[in-house]
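Running co-folding for adenosine-5'-diphosphate.
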Amino acid sequence: MIIDARKISWVRSDHTVLKNVDWQVRTGEHWSLVGLNGSGKTTLLKMINGYIWPTNGTLSVLNRPFGTCDLRELRKKIGWVSSALSEKFRSGERPEAIVLSGKFASIGLYEQTSPAEREKAHALLNQLGCESFENRAFGLLSQGEKQRVLIARALMADPELLILDEPCNGLDLFAREQMLSMIAELAKSADTPSMIFVTHHVEELLPCFDHTLLLKAGTVFKSGHASEVMTPEIMTAFYDHRVSVQRRGGRLSVELNEDAAMESRF
Ligand SMILES: Nc1ncnc2c1ncn2[C@@H]1O[C@H](COP(=O)(O)OP(=O)(O)O)[C@@H](O)[C@H]1O
Ligand SMILES: [Mg+2]
C-alpha cells in the first residue's frame, strides 16, 4: 500500500480544509488528483509528506502509520516536485548539483559525491531530456526546464512515490506537451515509482494515470478508475456546470456547454 487514508480531516480554526478523505493508492498505480483551485490538493499532499497532521482519521504512507514512524525517513522515500520547490534553489546552482542534492534530500549540495552517483545524476538528466542545458545556471532555465531538473532530482533518491504537483503550470503549449511526453516515458519504465499527478486541467491527464481522485471543497467527490470517474455526468456534477467530455488519443478534454458558458460569464 502506497497511501492509506481513512476519513482524514484537517481543520483550521473555523475552516475545514479537508473533510473525511478516504484514499487508497496501491503499489504500481498511477493516480491523478484533480480539483479546482483551493479544493485542498496541496494540503492533502503536505499531509502525505508528513508536514501537517490529520485533525481526525488515520493515515499510513508507504506502510508507515503516522504516529509511529519517523517522518524524516518517510520523506526520503517520497519525491515531491512543485513550482514552490524550484524557488528554493540558488539561481547560480548547476543542474547536476541540484540533481545530486536529491540523494541527501537537501537544498544545496554539501556532501561528497561518488563517481557512481554523478553518473546516475547524468543518466537522469539525460532521461529527462536536460542534456542541452545541464551546464547552465538553474536561474537561467525556463520553467519547463527547471521542472525537468527537479523531477530528475526527485528520482535521484529512488523514491517509492513521486508526486508531481501541477508540473505544467506556467508552461506554454509546447513545453507542456514536452513535459507530458517525458512523464509518459517515465511511466513506461519498470522501475518508476507510483506517481501522483496533480492538476486542475483535465486535458493534461495522460492515459498512464489510470486512477483519478476528484477533490471538491476538501471532500472526495469521486475516486476510482479514470474511465469510470471522468464521465460527462460526473464531471458536470463536479463542476456544477454542464460540460461535455471528449476523448482523443487517450487524452481528455472538457468543455463547458455553451449555455453553461453563458451562465458563468454573466
Ligand atoms: N495553513 C492554513 N490555514 C488555513 N487555511 C489554509 C491553510 N492552508 C491552506 N488553507 C486553505 O485551504 C484551502 C485549500 O488550499 P490548497 O490545499 O492550497 O488548495 P489547492 O492546492 O487545491 O489549490 C484554501 O481555501 C486555503 O486558503
Ligand atoms: Mg495547490
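Result summary
The mean pLDDT is 92.
Residues 8 and 180 are 31 Å apart (CA to CA).
Job closed.
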